[in-house]
Amino acid sequence: MTGQPIGRRERKKAQTRDAIQQHALRLFTERGYDATTLAEIAEAADVSETTLLRYFPTKQSLVLWDDFGTGIAAVFRAQPTDLRPVSALRATFHQVFGAAITQTQRADVRARVALLLSAPPLLRSLLLDELHGPAQLMRELIAERTGAEPDDLPTRTLVGAVIGVSLSALFAAERDPSADILTLLDDAMGELERLV
Question: How confident is the model at residue 87 (pLDDT cuts 50, 70, 90)?
């Protein structure tokens, strides 16, 4: 984040992108992922199918996150230097996904997770692919903090544990639809923090 004002054109593009994704998630929830077409999503969002595909090149990309790294690195690097890596990650997740997130964004997180966990095998399998980018980013950030190498075994193991507890929070949310996913994630990170 540069702190400079976002221009009118960029705001419009962001609003269009958000509207398309919100309509897609609503239709996927109401009609089912397989039963919803890109044409129906474009119509609901009041854009052309060509415009939709400029923002989201595949149907799967309407569900997946492509903005995990936005703000994460800067917030992690700003954590107190005496915090251990898991504690710094937990504080970062809380700041980025917890404290500042709106109820609408929480509903969006729940809708995406529900789709990923209950959708067709292809989409569900993409959940694992979706974790590659965040895992790489976390390895690099932890390596910066510890002076280790991003690909050494201790760093990979630690990031694997973070991914594991994150998945445990998602699966717990699947079993209890009334639970707040972000609270479950923070609780799971707290357990890992206590153990390491």
Answer: very high
